[in-house]
């Protein structure tokens, strides 16, 4: 369920289906820029529509380039023939790294006065090596705040013909890609020499490939020296088809490798075996883990290993797939044996420090992780270190959000700020939920003493499902508040207690702060307290994820007041289990007398009617029968019959 600042994912039990990929971010931004620089009009097909491409389009608009709709979601770019119409502009590029690097290089040679800036994180991402290289052949660029980092002011360059510029290859291949795309604008022959190991070569290869499609052939000696002859200029190829994003494909392929059967694999469309994106090699990494991987011209599919074998951990140099390698870090949770991702130092200067972020969030799931300057080692869960539900932070990093969605194949989780996926894949979570199947839930709601607790526990037992007694959480909160001396009406105080609740449900009962509390929470006084704290919205909010964390394989029966309306609105079966106040009061009286506790029928009936009123009248999550909930009136029904009825209904839904 998507809300404003988080998405709660239940444990997913299977995955299958087909996904049409959004366009590649890297190709889209390169194609937009080259089409803008080219002579002639270019129609761009299947271009990615996301935050990063929006920043590039805004930048091109600010530079006077016309980009218009060409029908069918395609775009028409009217090229400026190497000279942007606007000669002076201030351009904001958000956190779009590819756009920032390539525009820095291109604008350095474009002959105008420009300022380039971004969000605060963009101003922490180094760009000094690129600027130094550009300056070495005559560019005139100033750092406006901190030396080596954006924002930048760019003045017209004074290009020295036949310059040789050296650029480090081991920080970000985007520097080299940016420089290469700018070379035809230099108006003179410039040679670029790479110092040190060139990381992420496939991205450079992609740049060369696109430049060739736009009429410029780069001369290169191995991966060390590159140059473009003087006089080379970009020419529109007429139209250009953008491949589906291979990095975006990685999440779905991993999903298939972890949970899909060979008969019903996960298939991604829009990218295939001859793709120009380096991240298609991610499929090889999955195959090396044992997954069943197949590929055609325009598709790739993945499923679990053959013969029921598990995935196996791998030790991989990830230099060639820096972005998709993040997906392996989460796929590793489902493999046998540890996984080491090596040569990933570039993760540290991406949208966030991705090594630190990945390690911190995996640890929240109780995963053992070792992190180094340029590697990450993941030890998969086992019986002694099971995965545990967690609230995952995403650091304004789209890939963190998408990667962690895969952890829901093992455990329910909450992902904060899921909207950050808009950077490259705005409808990611819709696509994700369309190809996974959550563990089933039976939501049983009803008033107090209706017998729903007994019925729910028996249904759970019959099906081998987990059981959530959500009322117990409200009771425990009331008890914990009482013990801490917090008034039941103190919303913030009780909500704080609810959020910190140290509760362990075990076979025989429940422990609160290490003490058995099964009996204490059933006292009438605590029942009243529970019904009072349950009206407080902050308390309900604090307990929401704690309840959803029960939504695990093989399935769940949840009983309460708002199981079907708020906590599990997508439940396969919703039951509204009730009985008349007289019958309920009679049952409760009998129960108390059996326990040799004082019981007066009239007082009990008055009391439960008062609680009914509170539960039904409260503004937040009131007790009510959902339109899609089936009514089970137990006035004339024994427990066995009620259980059988629920089981019948559930069987009919499966
Ligand atoms: O089901 P129960 O009697 O143990 O519930 C105790 C109180 O908690 C009850 O007054 C209503 C409240 N409650 C709730 O508001 N929402 C739930 N899902 C479950 C219980």
What does this structure look like?
The protein has a five-stranded parallel β-sheet. It has a four-stranded mixed β-sheet with strand order 3-16-18-17. The model has no long low-confidence stretch (mean pLDDT 94). The protein folds into four domains: 6-22 and 244-437, Enolpyruvate transferase domain (UDP-n-acetylglucosamine1-carboxyvinyl-transferase, Chain), CATH 3.65.10; 25-241, Enolpyruvate transferase domain (UDP-n-acetylglucosamine1-carboxyvinyl-transferase, Chain); 439-465 and 554-654, Rossmann fold; 474-545, no CATH class. The protein has 654 residues and is α/β, with parallel strands linked by helices. The protein is elongated and about 100 Å long. Bound molecules: 2'-deoxycytidine-5'-monophosphate. 2'-deoxycytidine-5'-monophosphate (DC) is lined by residues 448, 470-471, 474-475, 530-531, 534, 560-563, 611, 615.
Labels describing this entry:
about 35% helix, binds 2'-deoxycytidine-5'-monophosphate, five-stranded parallel sheet, elongated, alpha/beta, Rossmann fold, about 650 residues, UDP-n-acetylglucosamine1-carboxyvinyl-transferase, Chain, four-stranded mixed sheet
What do the pLDDT scores average to? Answer: 94
Structural class: alpha/beta
Our count of helices gives: 21
Strand content: 15-25%
> Which CATH class of the largest domain?
Alpha Beta
CATH architecture of the largest domain: Alpha-beta prism
| Helix fraction bin | 25-40%
Small molecules in complex = 2'-deoxycytidine-5'-monophosphate
CATH H-level superfamily title of the largest domain: Enolpyruvate transferase domain
The main sheet comes to: 5 strands, parallel
Count of DSSP strands: 35
